[in-house]
Specification:
TIM Barrel, globular, binds SN-glycerol-3-phosphate, alpha/beta
Length: 217
């Protein structure tokens, strides 16, 4: 399973990328706002750091303008995936941009039917938002599972990019179900290493080592 970082924070992306934990990056207008940076500049910097797909989102709501925005964003670097919303206009833009050979990430997916449409429109990635479904008491993981089943039933090659990931359990469950990619904030990725028994075990080992009076270096 691939790990994308859901962030436009250059330092955080660089940090995880140096550890080999970054297969790609996803951004959206809210993350650009949070970064306080110019979209074209910060996206270019991210593309220079990360080899894998970097999603940059269009903001038009009408297909023709989405396509123009998508083409402009795609000029930033070869690894740009143009992100479009799951609306009919977004699907039209997806079809045109994917026919041009560009990577397209269809975002704001909340149903299996929407995911089907995105696959038929040639999406490279479909982004179902787990956390936002959980927010309204619908289990986001059920959606990931349903999309996996339907895509496998018909051999769709669109990759399931589990998004709006808020917890380490979202990551584990996405992996278990077979999402192709998770995109998570840097803090969630860092938390994947945490386990209280690891901390407890290490404290015991270090205390016992101290008692041996030995040194390795
Ligand atoms: O990947 C989509 C993500 O940025 C949305 O996350 O936590 O705002 O629902 P959230």
């Amino acid at each position: 399973m691939k790990f994308f970082v859901d962030s436009a924070d250059i330092a955080a992306i660089k940090d995880l990328n140096d550890l080999g934990m970054v297969d790609g990056v996803t951004t959206n207008p809210s993350l650009i706002l949070k970064s306080g940076r110019d979209i074209l500049e910060v996206t270019k910097e991210i593309c220079d750091i990360v080899d894998g797909p970097v999603s940059a989102e269009v903001v038009a709501t009408e297909a023709e303008t989405m396509i123009e925005e998508g083409r402009k964003l795609a000029k930033i670097a070869d690894n740009i995936a143009v992100k479009v919303p799951l609306t009919w206009d977004g699907l039209k833009a997806c079809k045109v941009l994917s026919d041009e050979g560009r990577m397209v990430n269809v975002t704001l997916c909340f149903s299996v039917n929407q995911a089907l449409l995105a696959a038929k429109a040639g999406a490279t990635f479909i982004s179902p938002f787990i956390g936002r479904l959980d927010d309204i008491n619908i289990d986001g993981m059920d959606l990931i599972e349903d999309i996996r089943t339907v895509y496998d039933n018909f051999d769709f090659t669109t990759q399931i990019l589990a998004a709006s990931i808020r917890t380490v359990n979202h990551v584990a469950d996405s992996a278990r179900i077979g999402a192709d990619v998770i995109t998570a904030p840097p803090e969630v990725i860092r938390k994947l290493a945490d386990h209280p028994l690891t901390d407890k075990g290490l404290a015991t080992f270090l205390a016992d080592w101290e008692k041996t009076g030995q040194k390795i270096l």
